[in-house]
Amino acid sequence: MVRAPRLLLLLPVLCVSEISLEPCEVDDDDFRCFCNFTDPQPEWSSAFQCISAVEVEIHGGGRSLEQFLKGADTDPKEYADMVKALRLRRLTVASAQVPAVLVGAFLRALGYSRLKELTLQDLEVTGAAPPPPLETTGPALSTLILRNVSWATGGAWLTELHQWLKPGLKVLRIAQAHPLAFSCAQLRTFPALTTLDLSDNPRLGEHGLTAALCPHKFPALRALVLRNAGIETPNGVCLAMAVAGVQPQHLDLSRNSLRATAPGAPGCVWPSTLNSLNLSFAGLEQVPKGLPARLSVLDLRCNRLNREPRPEELPKVSNLTLDGNPFLDPEAPNYQEDPTKSGVVPACAHSALAVGMSGTFAVLQRVGGFV
């Protein structure tokens, strides 16, 4: 067995003589391949079935992948033609302990692929990071999704990961991060990033957001998504964006427990670019003060508003959504009369997106579990 294909198991490519039908399964169209290596002695050769798939998902069963280190120093040019021939566009690697050196070798190998979306989920990245590449040799991703990934290098992890990626990343989603305070001084600029999604980080809060939004590193940002991110006030997010110098068009603060801005809190000027604000599923009993003066879209669905907001309480808005508030449903529980009731319209309370997860995660689960 040559050394390169041992590493390419994670692509996955493994050229061996015996091929097992399990634990990998590919659909009838050779489009999607799913592998779950949970057996005590996994048949890694089964990954060969995924060689023609467009979407590949590999779960490592929580085990260490150190055995693949022996191929990490192989020059990827030796198998470049094989990688270029792959149809692979979306790849998920989940449930494993991965040496940081192997992560670097893995991304270097993917540099010859046509991969566009990479998801890393439930991983523990161990050991010291490899030396930074002299030139960017990794994949030209458009989307990078990280969920519940811990890094031995602490706050420097995004810097080390980013240095392997070719320019052009447009979407970055980071959930359940360990940690999320980046080393801003070393972090390179994301010149093409239009969407930054930090949902499902309930300990983030406004202070954490200020640390994560490294100033002037996201010049092209158009959408900032902060569902279930420990946000307390829209004003606090406004201040964090001002420090970072970001100018998004869309801001999503849904599924946070929002409250009114405290008296005496510093004021904030919202970005003039902001035209869409999502405050749904936020437990609001009244419209927060200090919102942008003008908006194209304001989403206040599924809150606890017991009366229709007065015009002076709202921005000048073209599209206002108030569905799912108690004042629109006479049969909804009266929160003020009975504190044991949620005050939320039943249709909202039973929504799959309202219980325990952000909309981002729920949608991705429905489309096939790539996060």
From TrEMBL:
Places the protein is found: Cell membrane; Golgi apparatus; Membrane raft; Secreted
Gene3D superfamilies reported for this sequence: Ribonuclease Inhibitor
Domain of life: Eukaryota
Location of the region described as Disordered in the Swiss-Prot/TrEMBL record: 315-340
Function of the molecule: Coreceptor for bacterial lipopolysaccharide. In concert with LBP, binds to monomeric lipopolysaccharide and delivers it to the LY96/TLR4 complex, thereby mediating the innate immune response to bacterial lipopolysaccharide (LPS). Acts via MyD88, TIRAP and TRAF6, leading to NF-kappa-B activation, cytokine secretion and the inflammatory response.
Quaternary structure annotation from Swiss-Prot or TrEMBL: Belongs to the lipopolysaccharide (LPS) receptor, a multi-protein complex containing at least CD14, LY96 and TLR4. Interacts with LPAR1.
Protein name: Monocyte differentiation antigen CD14
Species annotation: Ailuropoda melanoleuca (Giant panda)
